[in-house]
Design brief:
Blueprint (H helix, E strand, L loop, with lengths): L24 H16 L3 H8 L2 H12 L2 H4 L3 E5 L5 H8 L4 E6 L3 H11 L6 E5 L12 E6 L12 H11 E8 L5 E3 L5 H8 L11 H7 L18 E3 L20
Parallel strand pairs: 1-2, 1-4, 2-3, 4-5
Antiparallel strand pairs: 6-7
C-alpha cells in the first residue's frame, strides 16, 4: 500500500519537500512536487499508519483469504505495493506469482520483508512508475491495489490503477477492489468547535477571526465517536461505477 505513479496525486502537507538545487525555477518546482509525493511514501511512519488501520487491512486480507479459489494458481499484480502486505496476502491465498510495483524506496524494505517470510520465490517487486515498468508477462489474472486516499479520492491512485488495468489485465480478469461507495453524514462536536474554531476569536487577547473563517472551510481527517453522529448517512454517487473491464462493451472506461 503506497505510491505507484506521479499522475494526479497530491502530497501530504505534513511532509517537507526535498530540496532541489541548480535547476531552473519551473523545472525545480516540477521535480519538487513529483519527488515530494514519492518521498513521503519512503518513510515507514505512513506505512505503519496504514498497516495499523485494521478495518482496511483486514478487509483486504479477508477478501483474498475467503476467495482462495479465485487466487489459486493465478498471476497477480499489486499496484503501489508498499511494504508488500497485499502481495503477501495474495501469495498466501494461493497465487502462482505476484508482481508488485512500487515507486518509492520502501520497495527495498519490502523485498527484505518478503524474503524474511520465505515468499521471495512467489513475489517479485519492481521499483518504478506503473507507466514505465515492463513486466515479464503480457497479462495478469488479478490486479490488487490500495489506491484509496482520505475521503476516498485524496491522494488516490485511481488513474494509475486504471492505466495498469488497461495495459495488463486479461479479458475477464478481476480487480480487488472493483468499486467503492462514498457516504456523507453530519456530526456535532462542541469541544472541537471550541478548540479549533472559536479559539481564533481570542488569541492571547487578540482577534484573529479572519483565520477562523478559513479554518471552517478546510477539511479535517479525524476519528469520530459514533455518539457525535446526528444524521442518517447519505450515499454520494460516484461518477465512475466500475473498475473492471466493462462487460457492456464500452471499452476501458467506467460502466455507463
Amino acid at each position: 500500500m503506497s505510491a505507484a505513479s506521479s499522475t494526479n496525486t497530491v502530497a501530504s502537507p505534513s511532509q517537507q519537500a526535498p530540496r532541489v538545487d541548480n535547476l531552473p525555477s519551473a523545472e525545480s518546482a516540477e521535480m519538487t512536487s513529483r519527488d515530494y509525493y514519492f518521498d513521503s511514501y519512503a518513510h515507514f511512519g505512513i506505512h505503519e499508519e496504514m498497516l495499523k488501520d485494521e478495518v482496511r487491512t483486514l478487509t483486504y486480507r479477508n477478501s483474498m483469504y475467503h476467495n482462495k479459489h479465485v487466487f489459486k494458481d493465478k498471476i497477480v499484480l499489486d499496484v503501489g505495493s508498499g511494504t508488500g502486505i497485499l502481495s503477501m496476502f495474495a501469495a498466501k491465498a494461493g497465487a502462482k506469482h505476484v508482481y508488485g510495483i512500487e515507486c518509492s524506496s520502501i520497495s527495498e524494505y519490502s523485498e527484505k520483508i518478503i524474503k524474511s517470510n520465505h515468499l521471495d520465490s512467489v513475489i517479485t517487486i519492481f521499483k518504478g512508475k506503473v507507466e514505465e515498468v515492463e513486466l515479464p508477462v503480457e497479462k495478469v489474472d488479478i490486479i490488487i491495489s490500495e489506491w484509496m486516499g482520505y475521503c476516498l479520492f485524496y491522494e488516490s491512485m485511481l488513474n494509475t490503477v486504471i492505466f495498469a488495468r488497461d495495459k495488463w489485465l486479461k479479458p475477464g480478469g478481476l480487480m480487488f477492489p472493483d468499486r467503492a461507495s462514498l457516504y456523507v453524514l453530519a456530526i456535532e462536536d462542541r469541544q472541537f468547535k471550541d478548540f479549533k474554531i472559536h479559539w481564533w476569536e481570542n488569541v492571547y487577547g487578540f482577534d484573529m477571526t479572519c483565520i477562523r473563517n478559513v479554518a471552517m472551510k478546510e477539511p479535517l481527517v479525524d476519528v469520530v465517536d459514533p455518539k457525535q453522529v446526528v444524521t442518517n448517512s447519505c450515499l454520494v454517487k460516484v461518477t465512475w461505477g466500475c473498475l473492471c473491464p466493462c462487460p457492456c462493451g464500452a471499452g476501458s472506461g467506467p460502466c455507463p
